[in-house]
Every structure is written in structure tokens, then in C-alpha cells.
Write a structure and sequence with these properties.
The chain is built from 2 helices and 4 strands; from the N terminus they run E-E-H-E-E-H. The protein has 88 residues and is an alpha+beta fold. It has a 4-stranded mixed β-sheet with strand order 3-1-2-4, with helices on one face.
Length: 88
């Protein structure tokens, strides 16, 4: 049984991705991405297991996507802006 999973977020509009980190419970991460999707953002996530083949986040590559540093923070700022505007 796998005990740790990579948290990968993808911006499908710009074809970029970022590895957010590793976690044993990915529920909050996947729920956050689902909330972003419901808010109209074009994002998806992946949670593949951490294996010996990809022990560091620098070794993860996705076909058709470019790695973007700071993607998670940028998407969080956009998500916060969208959700705040709903309350105003």
C-alpha cells in the first residue's frame, strides 16, 4: 500500500503544472481543486503515488505541460479573488 502521494496541480488553460508536495491524505487538496473547478477555473489535479521511479518532484514530467514555479500560489490568489467577489 502506498503511504504518500504527490499533489500535482495543472492549469489546463495555460498548459502548465506544478508539484505542490507530498501528502498521505490528499482529501483537502482534491477538494480545493474541485472548488476551483466549480468557481469556473480550468484546473485539474493528479495524486500519483510516490515511488522509487520519481522520488523527487524535479523528476516529475507531464507530456504537453510545462512546469511553472509558483503556479499553486497564483491559482490560490485567483480562487480567493473569485470567491471574495461572490460575497460582495
Amino acid at each position: 500500500m502506498n503511504s504518500r502521494y504527490w499533489q500535482i496541480i495543472r492549469d489546463d488553460g495555460k498548459k502548465t503544472f506544478a508539484v505542490h508536495g507530498q501528502e498521505s491524505n490528499t482529501n483537502s487538496f482534491t477538494n480545493l481543486v474541485h472548488g476551483m473547478q466549480k468557481a469556473g477555473m480550468n484546473v485539474t489535479c493528479m495524486t500519483p503515488p510516490v515511488t522509487n521511479r520519481n522520488p523527487s518532484k524535479d523528476s516529475i514530467k507531464l507530456t504537453g505541460y510545462i512546469k511553472e514555479e509558483g503556479l499553486y500560489e497564483r491559482l490560490m490568489k485567483e480562487y480567493n479573488r473569485i470567491t471574495r467577489s461572490e460575497f460582495e
